[in-house]
Prior knowledge:
- By secondary structure, the protein is α/β, with parallel strands linked by helices.
- It folds into two domains: 8-257, TIM Barrel (Alpha-Beta Barrel), CATH 3.20.20.20; 266-359, Sulfite Reductase Hemoprotein, domain 1, CATH 3.30.413.10.
- Helices cover 40% and strands 19% of the residues.
- The protein has helices spanning 41-53, 66-76, 91-99, 115-128, 143-149, 154-169, 185-196, 213-229, 244-257, 280-291, 309-312, 344-359, and strands at 15-17, 20-22, 29-33, 58-62, 83-87, 104-107, 132-137, 176-181, 204-205, 235-237, 266-269, 299-303, 318-322, 326-331, 334-340.
- Iron/sulfur cluster is lined by residues 270-273, 275-276, 303-305, 307-309, 312.
Amino acid sequence: MKEQDNKHRDTTRLVHVREVPLGGGAPVAVQSMNMTDTRDIPATRAQIAALADCGCEIARVAIPDLEAALALREICRDTPIPVVADIHFDYRLALESIRNGAHKIRINPGNIGDKDRVREVALAAKEHGIPIRVGVNSGSLSQKMLDLHGGVNRQSMVESALENIRMLEDNGFEDIVVSLKASDPLLMIESYRLLAGRTRYPLHLGVTEAGTPYEGSIRSAVGIGTLLAEGIGDTIRVSLTGQPEEEVRAAYAILKALRLRVRGPELISCPTCGRTQVDLIRVAAEVEQRLKSEKRNIRVAVMGCAVNGPGEAREADIGIAGGKGEFLLFSKGHILRKVNEKDAVEELFREIDRMEENAR
Ligand code: SF4
């Protein structure tokens, strides 16, 4: 799908989470959230490092209590990527997180409290030069919003966000990012569309409680991908019941499919059909596994047959196309040589390394 010409993301206010720009047409940033207990400082630092290593640009950590807020002092010191403190219920934890070096905080308008509390948080964030995400969640809207707008729907989601935005603005605070997460991708899509017409703050997209890596990736691709294709969304987080590194991989796959960001390899593989005479499913799985550690932006094709294979994958940098017990190794639609089925993956990666050497 072609992205719309009038992109909301090109018109949003530019805010920075430490060195990472959000909004104002900046590249859509990839976020994830730690699974570690924030009070366990070494484990939390290690997971942030692992996330940074696989391309995550912003990490979020849960702040359930004062000990977690105090742990930020050590976690945020020389962290490879900026750290966001996730706050629910207790505004004092937001204040403590800001004092201890959080690079951004996320507050939930449904449960953070009244104007005076929001004011204190806004003033502290302003003093420290960090942004605030107003993180609306369909599961925790305030009773007032539910009563006013007839339950959980796009109006109650958007009005909840706008009310909090106004509270921050009333205190002269404008480094705001907004999210409207719901587990229902349709509600999430409708809510963000409505909000995009009413605000110029950068939008953080996500389908919350999306599910297991399989189910969750699809639901996120539908929700996040639809909005991104319409030009809405400045930063994304794919929520999966799995390792956060999986979330980052899924996020880049969505961005790659829409040609918004390219990071790391792209694997193209055919669905197989009656022409296939090799164990393509095994070979493709092996190639996918080995590509996980690959950082270069290469397109690799794994095709079932040589009749259509190289032609169908002409745009691939490198690929293999099956024959009878063997593969043709090809590059950009041109055949390089035949390789034995059992050596095909090894030969493919040898050729990828050779491409790298030639490029130097
Ligand atoms: S590339 Fe060949 S084996 Fe794969 S789906 Fe196409 S025709 Fe079938």
